[in-house]
């Protein structure tokens, strides 16, 4: 593969070929980030779920590896040969007794439609995988539907925690996330159930205002929505109502990396950009760019903030910068006319003054107007591709950080308080960019635009 097809993202992860959905088993181990993913190796549509696999040392350049986990049966029905979503951890204390030499065992927890929650293990840093002999570790209950185990170590209670989507007694109204604990990774005890959630659970501790002595736990639903609260190792107690996590068109099945070293300390999240289109491409699906999560206190309470990981700078080409420029109404003729490209990193701070609306148009050409990123200052709405989110200025200013790739765009407003993640298709050769102002006075405090290199170069 040259990985240079017209609709192939250049810095968002895609499978080399065929279908991809949820990120699975995200883990950092011995210098490598592992990204497993729901994968159909037989075609560009969903079915026959396997775990595809890739590794990276910097969250930006990914190396494709062979399929890690195969379905547990060879059913010809695409719904029944399954290794569904799940997570990975390191068996630090060799509890399963499978370790070979000094390399700790990597465990993947996944769902099989056949019989419940299962373990596969690797004694060679994720390169080859074997099914655990004691499977399933959590069999299905009668009439129960359950999937997507997220496992992590909880130091305070000295136990492993597993969060699982479940539909007790097959009743839709009861579906939600069940919490289990274990001391040995194979015997799991039910602790509590939180109703009102659907698919791909995540539960993670985040710092508030970057202080290690003030934390909350955040539970994520499959669609990226979240609740902030507390977790005692057995039960989650909500402090906030459920809040939407992303306001774009294509954000689903989030997961955070396990086992990030303490000296790094980041909580890094990926999501599947569900619903993108890739006409004529050999692959179908892309991940969001990895993002760092944290919590911040605002007048209205504690909120999640999400920002792209700083490693994006590894792809920066020589950029252009502006400072303290008044943007007069109309299409800008000076600031951005020299900038072109379909892979860009844009960072700007805009003093709203008396402006009505302003924004960028990307992927323009002589033939067609491209994609509009607009901030409406009268309505306080940030929008793109038909989706919008309310975003109040802070100190009279709006900050925008935009990651533009060939078939996706992520817009982070005000330091990641509001994020829109969306997929699109555009004429491959439409690469012009303009900045515009619909009326009133706007001061561009700072603006940096970096063309981004391809991860494949
Ligand atoms: C979410 C999901 C998961 C399931 C997987 C199957 O997109 O439906 O709940 O494990 O996809 O591919």
UniProtKB/TrEMBL annotation:
GO MF, one example: sucrose alpha-glucosidase activity
Species per Swiss-Prot/TrEMBL record: Sunxiuqinia dokdonensis
Domain Glycosyl hydrolase family 32 C-terminal intervals: 325-450
Keywords: Glycosidase, Hydrolase, Signal
Pfam family of the protein (one): Glyco_hydro_32N
Cross-referenced SMART domains: Glyco_32
Domain Glycosyl hydrolase family 32 N-terminal: 12-308
Family under the similarity heading: Belongs to the glycosyl hydrolase 32 family.
PANTHER family from the UniProt entry: EXOINULINASE INUD (AFU_ORTHOLOGUE AFUA_5G00480)
Name assigned to this protein: Uncharacterized protein
GO cellular component, one term: cytoplasm
GO biological process, any: sucrose catabolic process
